[in-house]
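Field reference: sequence -> structure
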Amino acid sequence: MLVRTAKLAEQRRKLIAMLAVVVRGLSDLPSILPAASALAKRHVDYGARPEHYPVVGAALLWTLERGLGPQWTSEAASAWTAAYSTLSSFMIAEAYGSAQAAE
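Structure field:
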């Protein structure tokens, strides 16, 4: 149980670090694409599939909405939805090819 807790904590740190990279890089999207490409390819080895990306996106948006409370405005929701959609489409294309991204 302790090993599992440590792995979850590590994954949490990685997710927060990646979100910070994304937020900092939104004004310069090409600057984060190499890291996103590498991450997408690693996720294939973890068993991630294209159909998992929308589920993760919904969970991320739900979490941000709950965590930000009144600061979660319609503008914030639109911006995060667009950012996740853009990034996840890119990652799917990088990991599985553009044919998968179109599905």
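Note: The mean pLDDT is 86.
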